[in-house]
Amino acid sequence: MVIDKYKDIRPYSDEEAIAAFNRIARHPLLTQISAFLYPGKNPEELRQLIASIKSVNDFQSKVMLSAITKIIRDTSKTLSYSGVEKLKNGRKNLFISNHRDIMLDSGILQAILYHSGVETSEMAVGDNLITDPLMEDIARSNKMIKVVRNTNPREFYNSSALLSEYIRGSISAQSSSVWIAQKNGRTKDGIDATEQGLLKMFDMSGSGDFCKDFDELSIVPVSLSYEFEPCDILKTKELYISRRRKYVKSEGEDLNSILTGIMQFKGNIHFNFCEPLSASEIKSCSELEKNEKYKSLAELIDNKIVSTYHLWKNNYIAYDLLYSSDKYNDLYTPDERDKFISYVTYKLSDVEGNPKEMEEIFLSVYANPVLSKEKLSE
Questions:
Q1: What is the DSSP letter of 174?
Q2: Residue 274 and residue 272: Cα distance in Å, rounded?
Q3: By three-state DSSP, how is residue 28 classified?
Q4: Distance CA 173, CA 9 (A)
Q5: pLDDT, tens digit, 9 for 90 and up, residues 144-154
Q6: Domain range summary for the chain, segments of one domain joined by +
Q7: CATH class of the region 76-228+242-310
Q8: Is the pTM of this model over 0.70?
């Protein structure tokens, strides 16, 4: 008997998913989910559809894709993307992106791949977001890989090694691409940076040859940018509290952030797929001392993400407001500036704390991507 050591973290097989679809179809919460996604429709239609599905790919195309499409249609002005033509060679990739929204970053990426004729990827998601059997059934039927986070150091090491093996195996065997965020958790302050620990995790399953091991992963940095930062006021509150004491999440906070990110107006959205890291780029990193290798590789990924990050007028307005400057005032109109000021005032109107400090934090969430671009060009 072959032991499937990845059984607890990998996405469901089609056979496992069929059993999950039946559980999802019978779940009482499906009525509420149907009311949100398909208002005015009889929930029985969604139950019957899910119960009839026989594969993960069908679940993605018939259920998840329509859900993401509805969210984009209802809460954004435009969705644009670039660089997807680089993925048409059929090679499986490791997508590493900046991370702004808990569910939509990977969800929108899947929709882009699907509409571009590229096979959808598996997605690494923290186990803190897979909080009950229904969430687990939906997630793992949607190609999600479970990432173990809150555990003791020994178990964390073992789970990281297992995750590293699984991701490398999927890509090297050309069975599936994988998406993962560049850091543990969303960027709260608008500064996108790849954690070196993430790269060390990938290397746990390597042969010891830095160049060969990272070239095998075919790393494609992905930059994603929202005109209106998902959960901007929730991130502001967290940053404000974190300046005073260790921030501790309240019960149900992740779910609230998921729902807020889904329902909040996002304005324009842009995704960019960068060129995969080249063998020569990886080689230049490999020639450094051990820890410097990972630092250099992280900076390489960051530079690609930051350089292709799409700045919106909100970012430039926030920068000028934060620094009392007119540096970028040729990129927006006085009316657009006034509208953004009204948006900031509205968002901060019902929060507790020092008003000036709250405003400074809120503006910095939008202004920091401009600072990152400036530093890159220096």
A1: T
A2: 6
A3: coil
A4: 18
A5: 999 988 788 89
A6: 76-228+242-310, 314-377
A7: alpha beta
A8: yes
